[in-house]
Structure formats: C-alpha cells, structure tokens
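Journal club prep — side note

Before the paper discussion, L.F. wants everyone to see what a predicted structure for a comparable chain looks like in token form. Sequence:
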Amino acid sequence: MRLFQHIRKELIITGLEAKSKADALLRLTQAFKEAGLIQDEKKLYDSVIAREKLMSTGIGKGLAVAHAASGEMQDIAVAVAILSKELDFQSLDQKPVKVIFMIVVNDQRTDLNLKALAGISRMVNKTALLERLESATHSGEVLNIVKEVEGQIPHH
C-alpha cells in the first residue's frame, strides 16, 4: 500500500491551531465530513476518542497516528495535520506532538488500517519525514513530501 495515494488534499491541514488533543482530533474528523467522506462526524469523533482512551496514539518523536473504523467510509482515507504548536498527547515517549495522521477505514476493512500504520511506521523510522513535515506550509507540499519519502522505502 502506498500511503500517499490515500491522503486527500482536502484532508491536509497545515498550521492547525488546536487548544488540546481533543480539539485537534475534532478538527480532523470535521475535515472528513467537509470532504464528503462521512456524514456523522460525532460518531467518527467518538470512535477516535474511544481509541485514544484505550491507549494514546501519540507514538513518539512528535507524531500521533489516530485511527478509527467507520461504516460510512468506502475504503480508506488518511488525513494529516501539521500543528502550529506542539500539543501534549500523552505520547509513549512523553514528548509533545507536532504532526498527526488520522486513518479512517471501512469497518469491514480493518486490514487497511494495519497496512497504513505499518507504512507510516516505516517512513518515520527510516527517514526524516517528521522534520520535513513540520515545516510544510500547504497541502501540496505535505503530499509531495509523503510521496517522495515513501518512494525511498522498499514497497511491501
């Protein structure tokens, strides 16, 4: 799976000003509704928050990868937020988050969620993805960075 193929420009938010983790996640779920991918943003938000309560999706190095399943999604879509300032995400490494990916998959295709998580993990561990994304100022730049970085990693 090539992640960049599932990131839609209308789901990329640069310079996101969020007061809290919940505020950032709400803004990302709203983006899915604004893009016409879902109708019930509250249901998606509640699903994302329920997942956060199990364990923070702040995986470390300034990155969070929120994820949820929705019967409204046809397949998979990925949103990206570059925060204007770091936020406490109760991350595993206790460091604040500056970049958030949000993966939403059809509730019958949770295998896609695992593939997307693996792809993000490979990019973060093998490249300077986060450092480059943190300075991105528009959606096209974010998409180009992900595409370029993903191209440097062997495809599985």
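L.F.'s comment for the group: Helices lie at 21-34, 41-54, 110-126, 129-134, 139-151. Keep this in mind when we get to the figures.
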